[in-house]
Amino acid sequence: MSSATVEKPSFLQAQIGGLPRPFWALWGGTLVNRLGTMVMPFTGVYLTQSRGLSLTAAGLVMGVFGAGSLLSQIVAGTLTDRIGRRATLSGGMLATAAAMLALGYSSTLPAILASMFVLGLVIDVYRPASNALVADLVSPEERPRAYGLLFWGINLGYAVGMTAGGWLAGLGFVWLFWIDAVSSVIFAVLVWRAVPETRPEGRSPGGGFGIVLRDRLMLGFTLVSLGNALVYTQTMTMLPVAMTEVVKLTPGQFGLAMALNGVLIVIVQPLVSAWLGRRDAARTFALGLIVMGAGFALTAFVTSTLGLAVTIVIWTAGEIVTAGIPGAVVAALAPAALRGRYAGLFGFSWSLAAVLAPLMGGVLLDVGPRTLWFTVGGVALASAAGMLLLGPAIRRR
């Protein structure tokens, strides 16, 4: 008597198999877009060196960008639900391309301010639409893995884009603007051609964000996400300042240590995303926040490049653990017709953190490095506790 043998899926199939083709079109477009993301990391250098702005004027320009970014997620979330995911994403990418070129060719402060505000408004319009598309296309069981793979693609593209951007900036900043614009157009066209519209048929519920703001569970999760964002955003705001100004590392030493973050994410994250996706979302997210908090708190004792590298490994491990969970939680909490607005509120927490983190971090660093890093670690622990408190309600939902 013979029985058929059932072949177990290969490791590669377990990591990337089972996801629909439109998801991979979205993933590919996101990767291309991130490969071309070269302007924003070098904006400060461009404004001061190429356009000759003072540090004060450059700070004003970045503040205007932040104001546009705060509005962006609210507007994009509403558009995602009302006109559709595909139209919002593609339209946002085309608008980003236009704003990039406008900024690249602006030579006066008023023109630069206007271009930067518009860029802040449109550059992340794709995020709520992308999050809603994944929720529409992928089954609940596979969403953590799908969001994790999207996170991995963003980091992979960004790492390559940063490296190429540094080289191209030496040839002329206009190259960065054109490559960023072209990659945005490619993303728009790919989504328009290869990703179907998934917005539920029928009229989108009215009321703007009021209906989302009445969901106390979503508000609680948004506060947890704000804490997460305030912690992580320090990597782009106060961490470079503290390491170069207080610890006295050179920019090269800091950059070498920070490269560990991208390398670890690119290598490790796709290997563990499927396994993490099968764990309880609230407990896993809380664990990731605790590990991140420990890594940042230990930064208070860093005195060398090696010490910084150790802390980066620790908080990167926490970042990898949390990677695919927030999108999956938002998708689970949101009614199908409101996924754009729920994703927009989640995105707003990150935009708000981008404004608050340098303001709070600067004040705390003035008091002392230990005050800053112990506070950052404390915020992570408080956010983890909040996530554990929300866990039972998230599981019921």
UniProtKB/TrEMBL annotation:
The keyword Transmembrane applies. It comes from the Bacteria. One of its GO terms (molecular function) is transmembrane transporter activity. It holds the Pfam family MFS_1. Residues 22-395 form the Major facilitator superfamily (MFS) profile domain. Keywords: Cell membrane, Membrane, Transmembrane, Transmembrane helix, Transport. It is found in: Cell membrane. Coiled coil: none annotated. It is a multi-pass membrane protein. CDD domains: MFS_MdtH_MDR_like. GO terms for cellular component: plasma membrane. PANTHER family: MULTIDRUG RESISTANCE PROTEIN MDTH (PTHR23517:SF2), RESISTANCE PROTEIN MDTM, PUTATIVE-RELATED-RELATED (PTHR23517). This is Predicted arabinose efflux permease, MFS family. It comes from Nonomuraea solani.
